[in-house]
Amino acid sequence: MAAANYEHAIDLKQVAKVYRGRVHALQGIEMHVRRGEVFGLLGPNGAGKSTLVKIMMTVVRPTRAEGTLLGNPVGHKATLSRVGYLPENHRFPRYLTGRQTLEFFGALAKVDRRTAKRRAAELLETVGMSDWGDQKVSTYSKGMMQRVGLAQALMNDPDLVLLDEPTDGVDPVGRREIRDVMGRLREQGKTVFINSHALTELESICDRVAILIGGQVARQGAIDELTIAKQRYEIEISWNDPVSGREFALASVPANWKTATTTAPNPAPPRLAAIPLQNLAQVSAVSNTGLSSPPIVSPQFEAAGRLIPRAIDRGTLPNGQWAELDGPILRLGTTDPADVQPIIDALRGAGLLIRRVQPMRVSLEDLFMEAVSDSAAGERVIPGAHRGAPSTNGGRP
User: Fold this and answer.
1) CA separation for the pair 84, 105 (Å, rounded)
2) What pLDDT, on a 0 to 100 scale, did the predictor assign at position 242?
3) What CA–CA distances, in Å, run from 177 to 118, 120, 127, 170, 190?
4) How far is residue 108's CA from residue 307's CA, in Å, rounded to a whole number?
5) Is the pLDDT of residue 289 over 70?
6) Pairing mode, if any, of strands 83-86 and 160-164?
7) Which of 42, 111, 203, 231 is deepest in the core (most CB within 10 A)?
8) How far apart (Å, rounded) are the C-alpha atoms in residues 13 and 30?
9) Is residue 327 within 8 Å of residue 310, measured between CB atoms?
10) Which of these CATH numbers, 1.10.10.10, 3.90.1150.180, 3.40.1350.10, 3.40.50.300, describes 8-228?
11) Longest Cα separation, the chain
């Protein structure tokens, strides 16, 4: 086959689906998946993820759809022979064995019999089902069904693989093996499109992701690109005296510091809330005589301290980067390790001990929770498709 000259394996524009009752499942989706990457689609229940996959597979007829799949218009039947598909909640004939199931799906994909037998054996080995390949599907657990489902999606040696919840019901070992399979597919130049709720798995394997909210794409891109504004370095400082240690840290780091008072937003759990407030009076005043003073903070104070205001120092470094000292944690608004070195030198020069230096970014879970929350109202988006006129605010009510 001649080398394909298209840039995107999936290039969707203005994809919409309206069901009866004016239920807008998809509202003008625009999504671009590059060739040879692992792409993750995530969103709350009812966001339209499975509907979008089914439209690409021509299982669901769209109300409107523009764009291409493997360089051909969406809906081009011949293109589907180059696509592997694992639907959510798939079912196989229970009287067939795993091997027979793969050979059956190979025949449906017009794979010749000799090749189908060879690929069935190879794929059973790939997904860790060789020992069970000649057992009937009726004896399989849900996780084993998922493994065979992944194998059948690869029977036609596809260029694009669409996986709808591929690790649902799979144990941790199986999930790791499935991620390894996805990595090998990427190394072979194939494109993998995953629809999943397993955020940690998507974060570990995906090159780029899209977050679908209310039938619209709320975020799309590489995780590093989506979190760049919140990436930072954290330096954890160890000190004997919290008061003197904080003063030494502020004096060491050149910044325009301003102290803010912050109260923990979440109430303490019942076991902490039960601590009598008068116990706080038993906590001795912290000495301010120097770094050699022993810590004089009781467990009760540390536990109940989350209920009382605390000081957080925020400032701007001479190079314009933000800085924040929250207890023993110094956060720096930079991703360049070179920017952190003089700060470390200054802290150590002041006699402070560095416990940890670590680049940080928000997780995919944090990014997801931010996307599904209404920043104005401070509430989560109501799950499900939008009913009525098309939404203009990302599916939010």
Assistant:
1) 11
2) 80
3) 21, 17, 7, 10, 18
4) 63
5) no
6) parallel
7) 42
8) 4
9) yes
10) 3.40.50.300
11) 84
